[in-house]
Amino acid sequence: xxxxxxxxxxxxxxxxxxxxxxxxxxxxxxxxxxxxxxxxxxxxxxxxxxxxxxxxxxxxxxxxxxxxxxxxxxxxxxxxxxxxxxxxxxxxxxxxxxxxxxxxxxxxxxxxxxxxxxxxxxxxxxxxxxxxxxxxxxx
Length: 139
Prior knowledge:
This protein is mainly alpha-helical. It has helices at 2-44, 46-56, 58-65, 80-90, 93-105, 110-120, 123-138.
């Protein structure tokens, strides 16, 4: 009987530790990712390139224009940290990195990348991402 109690307590303890590592590990990874990408974009001047690309591409422009009229109070998240956490949980760091690499070397089109992300997120989450990207780029 003592062995069963010990095993049960040990199992609960391991479960709590596992949940803590998952929760705080995801939070840490998302914070680090946001910080790195923001700093990299600001320091390299790529933010202006992104804005110009959006202005020249009618599809991307219409995609971003939708974000202007959205009521932020109905969104599942409103900060880039929360958005990063959701992306990491639903898409995964390795898949996000694969998408980035494939887009950079030209083996994936932007439509394929958008479709891959859209398949894993809900419509509300996609709208929240649009709003966050719009705010980051234009405000």
